[in-house]
Batch of 4 targets.
Target 1
Amino acid sequence: MNQPTTSLPEIVINGRFLMQPVTGVQRVARELTRALDRLVAEEGLAVRLRLVCEPAAELDDLALRVTAVERAASRWAGRLGWRLGGHAWEQLVLPRHVRGAHLLCLGNTAPFAALHARQGVTVMIHDLSYRQFPGAYRLHYRLGHRFMLPSLLRRAGTILTVSEREKAMLAALRPDARGRIRVAQNGGWGGAAPAAQRLLTSGEAVEPGYMLFVGSLSRRKNIHGVLEVAVRLARESGLRTLIVGGGSEILSPITGDVPADVAHLVRFTGPVTELDALGQLYRGAGCLLFPSFYEASPLPPIEAMHFGCPVVVSAIPAMTERCGTAAVYCDPCDVDDMVAAVRRVLADPAPFAAKGRIHAAHWTWRDQAIRVLEAVLGNAATQLQQNARRNAAGDSAGEVAGNEGFILAEAAQQAPWPRSTEGTVSTRMARLSASERERA
């Protein structure tokens, strides 16, 4: 007798981020894509993953195990001999490849065609920094996101964001969207840096103990404040500073020169996207200074803590939500206060390093992936069924009961992607991350 088959829900990941310069948003998208793939593979979750990307996208570093990769190109653009990429690819090419699946967009944007179609769309809105600090961004970037945001808030089935603070800001813009907004805080360190000689990308050896800044060279990140602190500590204490990051086409250009007398102590490395190299820089730092004016769920403080690097951050709501009591806080508008905080950390770094390591273990990409799946699947997979499979040697009934697996609810076959996503996938999903929470 033939057993009835059940169609598995399918999630299509919008791979536009794979063709963008790697900053915070792209880092999160890459780590989440990898974590979702591992979660589905290792837990045997009954869901299909498909990553749709541009033909030239490089994704070998993702090491995908169960996610199908579909490289999508525009036929008519190809015939004309030119490439359709970026915004145009997302808006015109991607929607044709979703094919009824649930579309997961991890980079602040989504195709309008998918938003207006009768299909599920989940979009991650990382932050509203272009509204809070418009002077830090170029005009075309601000206008583009201001144009798209109302559609995202109105039509996306589920809206993901990365902090409670950001959720409150989004809900204030559109109160009727509050019930569709879910928080999934970013993970922490996603790579393992080897214990090797600490090198800059230029190949020059770096003596440990320097002050480190990691982030875009942006007014929002308070890069001018970082420079003031670096120059002052260089003159007063001979402290060296490494500034890791760069500008981009979406950021307003900044000006700032390092005085000649301390130029040898304040160095710009440019962007460091190789995780091994970045990990080495965290490992060798005496402290991280991250006095940003606005953040949602920043990566550098938690990454630094992972490597035992003490952290000085600005006393803003999203930072306290992210760093808890594991960081030293400062007033980002007061250079004296920033200098005092750095001196305090460098005078006795061991307690801050120990507390930071414990706190960093609390933030994992696996946890974030679980919350993303909860948000995307909603009520479609809340039913559990005990896994009746036995291995060749035979399992006891108790062991079989403990090896629960996900199946779809019968109703999910008829309406697998409801507009409302109230509820969670299951208590089993919550259980997956319990052990990692205990480490904090």
Target 2
Amino acid sequence: MGKWKNLFFLRASNIFHLEKKGRKTAPFMWRFFIFLSVMCISNTLSLLPVSDTHALSNVNDVKKIGFDEKLASSIDLDTEFLGEAGETVGISSFFGQKKPVVLSLAYFTCPRLCLLSTDGVLEVVNQMDSFRPGKDYTVVTISFDPEEPPDAIGARAAKYKRALTGGEKESSNWHFLTGTAENILALTDSVGFRFKKDGKEFAHPSGIVILTPDGIISRYLYGVQHDPRNFRLSLIEASEGKIGSSELLNKVLMFCYQFDPVGKRYALAALNIVKAGGMVTLTVLVAFLCIMWRRERKIF
């Protein structure tokens, strides 16, 4: 598909350079119109599926894939998984530490979506200067492929840990796990993650689950990339404002922003802002009247 796109760009370039060859050309507006048409066609071609895109064999299976939001529900804390070195890790070990947990589900040999999804987690984590793994929260990535080879886990884990801006200090707080089919299904069911194996690959949704320090589902953030503001506010919400440098500032942020269930993001709470503005105005007005009253008493 790339050669067709390059051909269109080449043709557009030739249209704009025919004058140099001494050949008669169309008026500028016509040439500009042709150029825009070429751009539109090339962009359309770039959006067409390419040969290595994996699609479901059965279209009806699309309904079986996605997230079922289970907000305020507890995840299955009794499940055990295998860590990067093959050690047994209980999922409960990440909780009870007064820090929220960022849970991502992605199998490590995935050639496409899982890579983008995990890259998105890395990107938003590195964009957070004041909220860092280990100090403020824990990141756990679990493979939902029980047949994942052990070396795939270690290689993927090493790659992402090296890319953390905090280096070794933070790398021990991003955990990569896999497990048996039974334990994987127990955890994915508890967070409402629906996926299906299709051939040698998996069809699955993309997103992260924000959990409270007690293992309660607080928020779902969908997609392969995440807005830093939404990520930060979801962590504050999950921790009840008890992480970061200023608990008071976090509580003010949660007062100003509320989660929009339709847009799936945090939006400015206009009514709360109006309330706060009204309180500030009333306070200033009362203070002004008190000052004026005292001055009036002194005069008389």
Target 3
Amino acid sequence: MVAVKLIPHILSWAGIVLVLLRGFPGRRSVVTLTSISGFVIGVVGTFTLFRSFPGTVVFGIVTSALGVVFLLIWGISVASIYRSTGRGVTFLWVERLVNTSLCAGMVAAIAGVVAGAVGICRLPVTDKTVLGLSLLVPASGAVAYAVAYATLAIEKRLPKSFAVSPYGMPTAVAALLLFSSSSILRLDLFSPLSMKVMKFAHDFVHQFMESMLIPDHVFIQSYLWRYIGLLFGKEIGFWGGLFIWFTPALLVLLAGQFERLPPVAHIRQGAQRRKILAAAIRERRFRLVIPLISLLFFVAAAYQSRFPSVEYWDPKPIVVTATSSGEIIIPKKGEVDLEDGKLHKFLFNRGGKDARFFVLMGPAGQLTVDLDACAICKPDGYGQADGTVICYYCKTLIPLETVGKPGGCNPVPITFAEKDDGVHIDALTLINEWGNTVQSTSKIKEGGK
């Protein structure tokens, strides 16, 4: 099972090495050695972080590294499209730097470190002893060595026409890294990106329309508010996220398509001119292959994020009642085992009002009671996956270590008392907290309807 889980990451790592070897054709030895070293450093370094810090911190560091890679691709894509416009701007110093062994080694090492870190995050790091570390070093080195040299053998057999441009190479590396990380819930970037776009749109429209304008403004007729409601749906985040996600690869594709042909005015023979132009056009088309493949990997990463191959633990809420003193008492070892580390949902009704909540024992061994809703999104509830709970409305992942803490998209914590006979919750407090929390969020109108 462990080997099966690693297959997508190993294939992505092989693709990264292949692109780097083809992007630095004269630096094969440097790329091979530094990529292997970087991969081992990424595996060992991330393993060491797991030994020293909570999982939340480690996943945050790796996610930040992936975010920096994505931002770099944005900058590279903008530079590529600007250069292709023919404004007379030259980047000779950049081109000279790209052709050096130093640049090849740095790019290969950084890509290897991030790829290794993503790969080790896919494995359950249970053996955090020195013995586990001593076994991990040769194992990761053997895998990196085998993949790198197998890829090198494949690369040498590829035709020379299969070229990689200086802009297509980093785009492909970033696409493969993001595709590899998209299969890991806590490293996925597309869902958080969509969530941030959605919340930005919600906050901006809310502040602009309610703070800067007045509802009966002469230019804001009643029918216009129905269309403004489109911006309050969660789909605005999805489509906005898609725009940000795909734009870098599309810009690199356009830059390659707009790349200027070599000047041939000084050549007198028409046949010779046509031959040179035809060769340049053919070479330009081959260089578009890698950016196009990168775009497909971006699509695959977004699809994997949107439809993860994970079955969330989402039990049917158990109906509970309150005692004559107004307390809800849930036994620790009753109908369910509250201390098994799973999310257990409950439903309480009072005066025709329902309140959903759940009880969960966190990784630190402490119980927490929370509403099945947050203070931001519609109360669609939460599901539990490996190491996280997920908000079904905005797809935000909340590490189990932070469940029970207020703020953001975290479930709203409820005050409770843990006693020998179970968990005690004040029924009135629960009903009031649920009403106050979902009063505004449950009225969000999607699609302007």
Target 4
Amino acid sequence: MRARLAAALGALILVSGCDSAQRTNEPSLPPPRIISGLVPGPVACTGPPPFARPAEPSLAADPNDPRQLVATWLENPAGTVVAVSHDGGGSWTRSPLPGLLTCAGGRYAHTSDPWVSIGQDGTIYVASLGTRPAASSTTAHDIVVSVSRDHGMSWEAPVIVETASAPPTQPDKEAILADPRLPATAYLVWVDYRVTAGVDPSVDQVMFARTSDGGRTWSTPAAIYSGGDEAQQNQLLLTAGGVLLDVFAEAPSLPGTPHPPPLPVKIRVIRSTDQGKTWSAPIDAARFTYTNAVDPGTGAQLRFFGQNISTASAGNAVYVSWFEDHSDFSTVLVARSEDAGLDWRTPQLVVREKAEAFLPTLAVAGDATVGLLWFDFRHFTRGSRTLDTSVWFSTSRDRGVHWTERRAAGPFDLRAVPASRFGPFIGDYMGLVGLPDGFAAAFVQGKPASRNGPTDMFFSRIAG
């Protein structure tokens, strides 16, 4: 299997001509700016210095005014933080998302998985997964949505879309999409795992809800897909023809181990032509081998898994990206559909490096230029005490066939980033959004780039 995969990737390299290992120079983007820092709020929610520990950003632009940008991220102990810019990223104001954490009068011990989207009428929606304080043998989790109707100046009380207790049910990884054409309309997707005490869950079903009154109320959550296995990283897209897509990675089980056995994974798409009331059978967009990034110096596990896919759309074109880290090379690939997700072309190779590459994030600019952000270890030196990690950005002006690569930031020391259960945690996704004249990106870096703590949130405005 590994030999066949290497041969196939070799053919892709010849087609795309983008083997970055052959390049001798490193064109770079302008340095990014830090947008995280001290967050105002109740003393109980700030904690002692260092204040900033940002991770897992989501980023959105107002479809009618791209100067209006909203970023959201995790920042313990402040919870979910929102940062708003009214000048295209030149300046930012930060605040905790109100009404969530118990330290600020809310219900939740902590929040996770923030996701932001802005509607046609300027309404901002931020979805979060709220975890209530543990009670006896169960823990309650809520899918919640917070809304702002004044460009992020104020936020309404969060609305609970679903409540579930684990065991037997645990929600995870929600994503929200505001309809860019219909005012007061947004869609929400997540998964519900079947949970048994003391066992990592591996079977889930995809859940969906929508609002038609600007987030004041939501439809009763409905299961829209269940393959009897694990579907993860669900993301919603809306095509020019009004087709709503849910794109996800699916496999019998998605292990969190440093060196998983060869595991075939499908990227699948389900389609709705009636705003999510009914959904099609799944369509296979791509197949790949699941891998898990590891520290190249120590072999320790890193929290970058094969299910960390990313999607984007423009018109009726749809894109999905993923990474694969093998024993002697690493790749990031992009697959494309030209007909709103019905048919998919052979994946194009964007990155091929000896060093591990991971966490790709896609977006499409107003002129149909495709942008891809990712991280890799090409600047790491074996034996070094630091795990030098760089941020890269590549663009394609021909729908993903050929790519131009530039270094976006770094290197920073990934080993110095705060740890999670599965290793250093900067997030399971980054923020990237297409603008009429380029892209905006929000991503995490650690020391020595960070200034306010072990990590900071960085913002880049990128010309197409």
